[in-house]
């Protein structure tokens, strides 16, 4: 599959950035655009899942809740110079892909913006987004990316709930409303894992019994191998409420933690402290290097409240398995894992026999990464460094001279890292991204700098939302993929 992504000549850009499907002009053709009185014809989905249409005067209209091919009556909620933002007031002619949203809160909650679109169509849209955004950067995928997904609709193992007391003293617990900071009371959430969803009702009732609910900033629920953890964000100590929370945790079999304080909150356990873990896939069946006959099908990753944790455990496992399948034999190869967190990918690389230096900016997470390697009997060199500084990145590349680099940055991407990797090329780059826009920007820099994309995948990490995770494997033709200790090519 070499040559899957290749550089191509730049071309004039047309339409709106990040749109999927066949481009159409803004001509006032009755087949593509109708007057507001007749409704708007939705031409395609933008990358963020909103429908795109053009009004009679040719102005772009981004329409929440609209699907390609539909004729809809809209209401504009935001007007800008070049485009308007609107929402569907009435569907006049519906798409065959329109379905009834499975959640009773869909009309108000801002969480799941694509529940009105059939799952198969959601995934087709997401598969089209990455090639489109790469194309707008002058990079063409000659084959469609593969899809990483599971069939479980109850996938979310962590959720943050806002708490608000209104002017009448009523307590609200839930998620933010669409296009608003207002809270929507949530009594049932279809995408939560069952253990978390079952807590919503009891939490509503319990928060209403507190003496000082205004001192509660938010709640976070997360599922671990040890059970459900409830994390309180408490602005100020209230002894009676603390005792109430401890009793609530005992009744429901929860582990209870809180962040206490306004400006520099401190973390403490309100139930007996324990080490939290979740399971990750190893490099696959068969013995790992130096492991004798022991298989490494699973690894254990320890984490603490506040650490980054992928919300969809099953898809995260599939992403790691896909990455390891792409990489093949990595024994003896030297890897630099940047933005490594607590070791989500580092451990699998090390279990596969790679020599891994893992770099993370958060000092506490670096310590847990080192502990995780130790617990799993793996050798990983854990380093703390600021990966937004060009000099630091170049020093890391110079010191470790890796054959390959794994990138898993936050939404802002890894622009400085990619620039350094153009100037100091490596044989392979595995780029894992939570934002296809910044991934496309960074991938274009790499491709125009001599790399080629040989694998691409889109992960449906957040079903019913327009959010997607992506993975690219890039290779540099002037850097050979060779075992550690072999003489590097020039």
TrEMBL record:
Pfam families given in the database record: tRNA_U5-meth_tr
One function term, GO molecular function aspect: 4 iron, 4 sulfur cluster binding
Catalytic residues (UniProt): 434
Superkingdom of this protein's organism: Bacteria
Compositionally skewed regions (Basic residues) per UniProt: 1-11
InterPro entries, per database record: MeTrfase_TrmA_AS (IPR030390), NA-bd_OB-fold (IPR012340), SAM-dependent_MTases_sf (IPR029063), U5_MeTrfase_fam (IPR010280)
GO biological process, one term: rRNA base methylation
Keywords from the named record: 4Fe-4S, Iron, Iron-sulfur, Metal-binding, Methyltransferase, S-adenosyl-L-methionine, Transferase
Database matches in Gene3D superfamilies: 2.40.50.1070, Nucleic acid-binding proteins, Vaccinia Virus protein VP39
Chain segments carrying region Disordered: 1-32
Binding site for S-adenosyl-L-methionine: 310, 339, 360, 408
SUPFAM superfamilies named in the record: Nucleic acid-binding proteins, S-adenosyl-L-methionine-dependent methyltransferases
NCBIfam families linked to this entry: rumA (TIGR00479)
Homology family: Belongs to the class I-like SAM-binding methyltransferase superfamily. RNA M5U methyltransferase family.
Protein name: 23S rRNA m(5)U-1939 methyltransferase
Organism in which the protein naturally occurs: Halomonas korlensis
Taxonomic lineage of the native organism: Bacteria, Pseudomonadati, Pseudomonadota, Gammaproteobacteria, Oceanospirillales
